[in-house]
Amino acid sequence: MDTNIPPLPHPKSTFTIKIGLIGDAQVGKTSLMVKYVENVFDEEYTQTLGVNCLSKKITLGSADIMFYIMDLGGQREFINMLPLASEGAKAIIFLFDLTRPETLKSIKEWHRQATGFNEQAVPLLVGTKYDLFVNMDPELQSQISRQSMRYAQAMDAPLIFCSTSHSINVQKIFKIIIAKLYNLTMRASEIKQIGDPLLIYKYLGGTRRSASASSDPSNASN
Amino acid sequence: MHSPLASSTGSFKRSRDVSDPSFALSPPLKKLTSDLWPGSEVSDKSTSITNAFSLDKITPAATPTKWTPQEWSSEKDYNSNCVSKSPSLDIPFSDLRLCPSVSSSNLPASLHSKSTTNGPHMIFRIPEIVEQILRCLESTTSVPRETPRPRRKPQSFSHALLMCHGDEKVAKKAWQEAARINFSNGESVGPSLYNCLLVNQLWHKVALSIITENLHFTDSRKMRKLVASPSNVKERFSKASTFVLHKLNKLTQTELEAIAPVVASERLRWVELYICPKLSPPPFIFHHSKNIEKLILPGNQRVDDKFLMNIAPYLSKLKILDLRACEKVTDGGILSISTSCPALEMCNLGRHRNGKAITSVSLVALARNTNVDTIGAAGCHVTDAGIWELAMQRGSHIKRLSLNDCNLLTNNSLPTLIALKYFPQLSVLEIRNVKHITNLRSIVAFIREKRSQGIPVLIEGGEQTELLMREAEHRMQQEYSTSVLASFSRWINEDDED
């Protein structure tokens, strides 16, 4: 008899995931967000005043994912808004400009500050403007790549080089966040060759998850 | 002087009545009223007429008492009337008085001091307003009723623990509370309206008519007093809209029959004999009251099929019928009720003894003929087939179902029907001690679906059933988690849209 009863569908849940975008001015935080959410790239620079936010819904079979992305202006004057972007975030993406090594150096301070507000979030280290980086002096490319790998190790953060204008590795960033949050196996192969758009994630960013206990979908908000 | 002149008008007479608190007992004295309306004041005020008039322009319009035409004959009359009358509506409500404390007649009183001591405030002389005031009082007195409970008591400590989701402190408290026998009576505030009977004649009249609109007794002596009151008083009773007897075990049937003529009327809506096992409601009441909507007779040993068949034809407006623990009632009685009461919305037939007397026949009859949305059939011999028929006929309207101890029910009725969405509006389902209902997945899924829409649902399952529900819920949660993670996994491994 049991088998004859059609099962009532489980009410669909939405998993809201807040993500903070942090890094120096003009590294491309807003561009990355707009590209991911609206699939648009604008060459023109617009300074972010305070905090921008956009959300994107991914509709899947038995549940939806809602990415709620907060993008913090890179100027020092907005540092007091850092809690807005980092508190409650499930993941924090630290961005630097691959063509400006000093923006990578700033990551150390950004990371220290953001971790102060949120220790549980999964960190990601993202190098932007790969399309410009790839035309730079190979020696410089190698230096920056190695340096960013060391940073990624120290932060225990997956490392991704991306290009917003050329749509390289943009989607991957958000899939890695889900993989890390729910401890899922992602099969995309890593890219470790210097000069290529690096994609190193398999053994990074995994230690915090047990603390956040976010692998239990029952935490979801409906 | 104008004041004595006013004694010829009805309004003034009323003010005299109220000023004399002993009036309710003795007729008013026809003495001169100069102590209330001192003659000196008018002449005193004549100099300040214009001032007083501008202070209180609204007085003439706002005064509900009627003035006889001759009083308006001259402008001087009009003005002086205003002067002498206006203060009584002008004073703040905090200064209101029912009776004059000291007569101020001898004092050369100012406008204000005169007004505060000069008899009761105007509003206490206007029957319509007195009625409004007394009605507010009446709304605080409550009808005796059984204390409603939000949830049933736990059956054991482990059950309490289950109900509280493992919170031991809360569970302990709940279980202790359940173990203690609760004697709390539904009655709360004393009948404050009765004091109003003694104020004066006007108040007596108004209060009596309000009191007698709702007759409820928890004490048989009080009811005897009412029956014994002289016929001229009975004539002044309102036609009652509710008649409630709460646990009157000393009252005799003869005494109840005696009150029937007082109670019976077209206004009667609610008849209740709550746990009065030896009393049978007099058919006279039903024969003369065709608008009864609520009939509550729990724990009655005298109500039987014959009684129900006798009164059913007069209950065409009945909406609520409570026959809990009326063990003499069988399918036959319910059949006649269901064919005569198309408006019936709630019917409770729950019982501990003689459950075999109520079967699916009653259930089906109610489902086919009435507007029922709430059915109590706890301890009755209803079957799966009966529940199926109920679902087919009225499933979409059913809101509450009590089927505790209905041991003939199995997984083939409720769980299946709920899965098939036959009871979309169900909000309370009681299935305590129904041993054969073991498949609770569909019920749990139903609860989840309702909760996700923000609609509360209460399923009272008792310890065993609730344990099974908790297990089913856990299993379903796990299955869901697995399926969510699988879809996430699929997504992260899809090709990028880049």
Tag the structure with descriptive keywords.
heterodimer; A: 222 residues; Rossmann fold; 7-stranded mixed beta sheet; 7 helices; 7 strands; 22% strand; globular; B: 498 residues; alpha/beta; 24 helices; 10 strands; Leu-rich_rpt_Cys-con_subtyp (chain B); LRR_dom_sf (chain B); small GTPase binding (chain B); LADA_0D05336g1_1 (chain B); FBXL15_LRR (chain B)
Give the rounded overall mean pLDDT of chain A: 88
| Secondary structure: helix percent of chain A | 25-40%
The neighbouring-strand order within the major sheet of chain B is 1-2-3-4-5-6-7-8-9-10
Number of domains of chain A: 1
Mean pLDDT of chain B: 77
Instruction: Write down the overall geometry of chain A.
Output: globular
InterPro entries (chain A): P-loop_NTPase, Small_GTP-bd, Small_GTPase, Small_GTPase_Tem1/Spg1
Pfam families (chain A): Ras (PF00071)
Protein name (chain A): LADA_0H14598g1_1
GO molecular function (chain A): GTP binding; GTPase activity
Task: List the topology elements.
The complex is a heterodimer of chains A (222) and B (498).
Chain A: E1 13-23, H1 29-38, E2 51-59, E3 63-72, H2 82-86, E4 91-97, H3 101-117, E5 122-128, H4 130-133, H5 138-155, E6 159-161, H6 170-181, E7 199-200, H7 209-212
Parallel strand pairs in A: 1-3, 1-4, 4-5, 5-6
Antiparallel strand pairs in A: 2-3, 6-7
Helix pairs in contact in A: 3-5
Chain B: H1 2-6, H2 10-19, H3 39-45, H4 49-55, H5 59-62, H6 75-85, H7 87-90, H8 111-117, H9 127-138, H10 157-163, H11 168-179, H12 193-196, H13 201-211, E1 214-217, H14 220-228, H15 231-234, E2 242-246, H16 253-263, E3 270-274, H17 283-287, E4 294-296, H18 305-311, E5 320-322, H19 331-340, E6 346-348, H20 360-369, E7 374-376, H21 384-394, E8 400-402, H22 414-419, E9 428-430, H23 441-452, E10 458-460, H24 462-492
Parallel strand pairs in B: 1-2, 2-3, 3-4, 4-5, 5-6, 6-7, 7-8, 8-9, 9-10
Helix pairs in contact in B: 4-6, 9-13, 10-11, 10-24, 18-19, 19-20, 20-21, 23-24
